[in-house]
Amino acid sequence: MTEILLILLGIGMVGAAIMAVHLKNLVAAAVAGGIVSLFASVIYVVLAAPDVAMTEAAIGAGLSMAIFLYAIKKTREKEVEHD
Amino acid sequence: MIKRAIALIVALLMVWIMFDMLVNWNAPNDLSGVAREYVEKEPTQLGAVNVVTAIVVTYRGFDTLGEVTVLFLAATGVAVLLSRRKKEPKQGKKKYRPASEFLKTGTHLLSPFIVMFGAYIFLNGHLSPGGGFQGGAVIASGVLFLFLVFPDFKLNHLALNWLESTAGASYVLVGILGLLLAAGFLDNRFLPLGHYGTLLSAGAIPVIYTLIGLKVGTELSGILENLKD
After folding, report:
1. With pLDDT > 90 as the criterion, what percentage of chain B qualifies?
2. Closest Cα partner for B85 from A66, A65, A74, A80?
3. What residues contact residue B53 under an 8 Å CB cut-off, 6+ apart?
């Protein structure tokens, strides 16, 4: 049962990672990157590593995604200014 | 074309190496070497219920100090790079669309509890999963919540910097106290170990994790604040 769950989560991670690379919309790509971390944190919980899972969920899926979104917002604004 | 071929060859090489490891891999039935020492001796030696915390804060405490330093340097770098941009003259004040009533009310209700949960995580670092880094990150995500809903929300920079530097300096000070009063740098046993499994146990580990939690929380909040405007 856990192995099936792990394989599904692993496939989800790889899929989200490929989406993060290929998506043209940068905001969607950042969200896909967050999904990779979210699945990874679930995998850590299943593998009995709750300490690592908490770090991954809070920093990988939460804060780094927010920092990416802020950065994307800033760079877009700058492009519009120079037009 | 050549670039793609090289990438494909490297990927196939990685697959081959990993496949070899995966085929010959057996799940270990026993802890080996230093891991067994930690798990067997830690409860009587350091008295923390969560062995991971004992390893991170005490046995490998020097590594944690290094991590905190790296985070501090990253936060300082972000502050230096982004504060230079702020000094450029602004063309008019930015107008944000105000958040909806639902978001505002939800944030008012939830953000104190998120910050409190972060404090709970680092105070219970020696008893349950989590610790200073995780608690600090949760506190910062509570602050992020406030920033998203109230774009004009400002943190008190003076208090934030003061808290951050005091926590960092006290962390090193606690480490030196361990060197002077107990067996070595960042040793937790200069405070009484207390009753195994209670909040006030495991010597200086709760003190160290509280300091790390405050430092990480204020640093990450500072990074978010610098990025925000």
Report:
1. 7
2. A74
3. A51, B125, B126, B131, B202, B205, B209
Judging contacts by C-beta atoms under 8 Å, the chain B residues touching residue A58 are: 134, 137-138, 141
Buried b (16+ CB within 10 A) or exposed e, B10-37: eeeeeeeeeeeeeeeeeeeeeeeeeeee
Long-range contacts of B146-150 (CB under 8 A, 24+ apart): B146/B107, B146/B111, B147/B224, B147/B225, B147/B228, B148/B99, B149/B99, B149/B103, B149/B104, B149/B107, B150/B99, B150/B104, B150/B107
Inter-chain touch A63–B144, beta carbons under 8 Å: yes
Asked if B140 lies within 8 A of A63 by C-beta distance, the reply is: yes
pTM of this prediction? 0.81
B150-203 residue pLDDT tens: 877 777 778 888 888 888 888 888 888 888 877 778 777 777 777 777 777 777
> What does the pLDDT read at residue A79?
46
CA separation for the pair B139, B217 (Å, rounded): 6
- Confirm whether B86 is domain-assigned: no
Closest residue in chain A to residue B147, using alpha carbons only: A66
Q: What ipTM is given for this predicted complex?
A: 0.79
Q: What's the token pair of residue B194?
A: 């207390």
**Could you say which of A55, A71, A74 has the minimum Cβ distance to residue B134?**
A55
CA atoms of B46 and B66, how far apart (whole Å) = 22
Domain that holds residue B172: 52-66+102-229
Task: Give chain A positions within 8 Å (CB) of B140.
Answer: 63
| The total number of structural domains that make up chain B | 1
- On whether residue B189 sits in a domain, the answer given is yes
